[in-house]
Amino acid sequence: MVKDIHNYAENQLNDFLEYLAIPSVSAENKGIKEASDWLVKKFEQLGAKKSEKWEKKGQNPFVYAEFEGKSSKTVLFYNHYDVQPAQPLNEWQTEPFKPTFVDGKLVARGASDDKGELMARLVMVKWFQENGGLPVNLKFFVEGEEEIGSLHVDEAVKEHAEELEADACIWEGGGKNSVNRFEVISGMKGIVSFDIEAVTADVDMHSSLACFAPNAAWRLVQGLATLKDKNGRVTVEGFYDDVDELTSVEKAAVEQMDFDEEKVKRTFGLKREFITDKPAYAFVNEPTMTINGLTSGYEGEGVKTVLPKYAKAKLDCRLVPKQNPEKIVRLVEAHLRKNGFADLKVTFNLGENAFRSDSSHAFVQLAMTTAKKVYGDDQVKYVPNAAGGGPIECFGNVLKLPIVLVGVHNAASGAHAPNEHILVSDFVQGVEYLIELLQKF
């Protein structure tokens, strides 16, 4: 039976490649209609009793589908159909929106994040429809703004809470870690994104005037330098106040996590040591503050001796449960004022709350036991939450659902990077896992 499922999944993969070929880049407002139309049609072809778009002006449409199963149990799937821009194009070895098989890999923008994972779920649906029917009711919630902050998910979930009622939720984003073990994850960190700007004059000036005129770039970096100490600890007063200790079960899970420090360093070509001696714990329960980018003055080729009037930095913080994105930005503003940088302007961009399911919940436990059956007892790890963020909190706290993150990518899949891919072997094994999990549920 397992061999039959694997052969089926691999053979079906070609029928879904056109989904990867749609350049649905939300940041550039491209391909959104085409991708959402494709999904509505595909759900209909697979036998959905309802397949529709939830649309509002100024929003990318949500795609919602329902399938009827043979029991009263209902599973809700979350995915997104938008992808990151493909740039830098010169670093791709194949065309980013021309799905290509290379040495057992399926290479395309979105193959890992997140179209490939939804494709596995669609293949799973098709297999059940051709082999006696779905064992449980299924609902799919697929958004088109995840890569630009999932700005309208909370609103949609609250508005359609009755339609989204379920017994459990299977999220996107899981897969195999750096030592090729399958991870069952039951939460995500939150995030807040904000800008900090410095303005020191009305016009850029000749750099010779730096003997008396203030420089926006220096002003900004001096303010930024107050936000962290030399060991990487955030120095903003109150930043860690809402961080709870992990439970004993969660601590045990962290201690059992795979974290091969040397392999991680090689994978990313790190040039300096980690900023913590507890990277696995930090991955799960340590909030962060990151400078994403800096802009000021002249950044082109050659020389331009300018004294910049303006400088801007983009930052994000990855947050843990109970940390509030808006509160974090207020704390940053207060910190800058207290340290003599009241002139720096802080602008909130977006925020998402963290959520972590109860590790003892029956569905989380079922996801684990099923994974051990499919992948092997010693090839599965439980992770309390992912280091990345997403609009997960409203599904957990509004819909009151246990949530697990399981998927088909691996640690080297290159999400958001050139040559993004998944392994075909991971794809077919992921389909088997979903089939087994739904049957047991």
From TrEMBL:
InterPro entries: Cyt/Met_Dipeptidase, Peptidase_M20, Peptidase_M20_dimer
GO biological process: lysine biosynthetic process via diaminopimelate; proteolysis
GO cellular component: cytosol
Domain Peptidase M20 dimerisation: 187-339
Domain of life, source organism: Bacteria
Signal peptide (UniProt feature, chain positions): none
Pfam families: M20_dimer, Peptidase_M20
Protein name: Acetylornithine deacetylase succinyl-diaminopimelate desuccinylase-like protein
Originating species: Liquorilactobacillus hordei DSM 19519
